[in-house]
Description:
The chain is mainly alpha-helical. Helix content is 71%, strand content 7%. 3% of the residues are buried. The mean pLDDT is 91.
Amino acid sequence: MRLTVSRVDPWSAMKMSFLLSVALGIAGVVMVSVLWTILAGMGVFDQVNSLVGQIIQDGNQTFDIMDFLGFGRVVSLAIVVGVIDVILMTALATLAAFLYNVSSSLVGGLQLTLTDD
């Protein structure tokens, strides 16, 4: 059976891409949280503090990487990146549906061959 995909509904493409990008955003925040917890548990941040402390050697002022890479700051940055990702992926998928509709009206669409096993 030969079928032709002649039109993609932009509204359904937007809804589907929104749901998928929200899922990816949540997965990204969870991944960043788990990675930060693993690095903190391994003592990576303490080793960076001691290494930078040896390099800088400032008497009164100590360096603490947690001022820059604290858990709250890292997770909030991951949430901001996730929200931007949701907005961009939804907009790009909707735009891609509009572009596909325009190009399929010119060339006839995408032809698929389906078989029944």
